[in-house]
Specification:
There is one protein chain. The chain is mainly α. The protein has two domains: 44 residues, no CATH class; 257 residues, MetI-like fold, CATH 1.10.3720.10. It is globular, with a radius of gyration of 26 Å.
Length: 315
């Protein structure tokens, strides 16, 4: 060992040699990079619309700056009762989704992982994955057939049992429960795939050693499976927390109606109605920018907290 000489290769030469050897990989990266630049980064230039008075006949550089040092539309947004209501509903619905919807795929994956009949397991997986591929328009049609006040199957059944009909889609408070329930049903099977993949990476030797020690199924699940998928749970939780102020458009738009707008209007539908239909582009761009900034802060905060607690964050 003492007679061996260690040859130190300069870092620049090593990097260039590595790139030349694996240049195909870097060429493959060009397509996603070009996509990100064209469709993700270049459109960021139009964020300036939030600080300017929008005009369809002027370029973004020619548009005059808004009042109050460019923050006119941010001030207008926070004085708008409809926006404040949409903000409140967005946070409330997303937190309820997180509270009730986040644990369901974890529990389902744990139960599914314990099944020994492979054919039955595949059938269950297929059935639970299928709702993910349905659009929210179709899901609303199904919900209407099931939960309509006078013609829905569930309320007809309750009527025959001598019970009062439940206004699943017409009462603001009951609508929230229906909204959360349909969201869980639509997504829990698909979301469980990630946890099942994480469970597949746990060493079988750990389960064998636990069996030798006399551990039961629940003990193996609690002491081996859950700690094994804990990093995956933390990462997905951080990403979910980063979207507390954000929300999809199709789900609330498909399920809302005039009777439940007090709880159904969210930022996405507010932007559609005020921005696209009302042609107030500067105002809704300001709302969208505010939404994105708050989401980033939630993401950074959740990542920082997980690192402080000793868990692995996103970065």
């Amino acid at each position: 060992m003492d007679n061996e000489t260690v040859v130190k290769v300069p870092r620049k030469k090593f990097n260039s040699a590595y790139i030349k050897r694996h240049y195909q990989l870097y060429l493959l990266l060009l397509l996603p990079l070009i996509y990100l630049i064209i469709f993700k980064y270049l459109p960021m230039w139009y964020v300036l619309i939030a600080f300017k008075k929008y005009s369809i006949v002027q370029s973004i550089t020619e548009m005059p700056w808004a009042k109050n040092h460019g923050f006119e539309y941010f001030i207008k947004a926070f004085k708008n009762r409809d926006f404040l209501r949409a903000l409140r509903n967005t946070v409330k619905l997303n937190l309820l989704d997180l509270l009730f919807g986040f644990p369901v795929p974890i529990i389902f994956a744990l139960i599914l992982n314990e099944l020994r009949l492979k054919k039955f397991k595949k059938v269950v997986q297929t059935i639970t994955y299928m709702p993910h591929f349905l659009s929210w328009v179709i899901i609303y049609g199904l919900a209407l057939q099931l939960f309509a006040p006078s013609t829905g199957f569930v309320n007809l059944l309750l009527g025959k049992m001598g019970l009062e009909a439940i206004p699943f889609l017409n009462d603001a408070n009951t609508w929230v429960k229906t909204y959360i329930g349909l969201g869980i049903w639509q997504s829990f099977g698909w979301n469980s795939i990630i946890y099942l993949a994480a469970m597949a990476g746990i060493s079988p030797e750990l389960y064998e050693a636990a069996s030798v020690d006399g551990a039961g199924r629940f003990q193996k699940m609690w002491h081996i499976t859950l700690p094994g998928i804990k990093p995956t749970i933390v990462v997905l939780l951080i990403m979910a927390l980063g979207n507390v102020i954000g929300s999809g458009f199709d789900r609330p738009f498909a399920l809302q109606n005039k009777l439940v707008m007090e709880n159904a209007e969210v930022i996405a539908t507010f932007v559609y109605k005020i921005g696209i239909k009302g042609l107030q582009f500067s105002l809704t761009t300001a709302v969208g920018l505010f939404q994105s900034i708050i989401n980033v802060f939630f993401l950074l905060g959740a990542n920082w907290l997980s690192r402080r607690l000793g868990e692995r964050g996103i970065w």
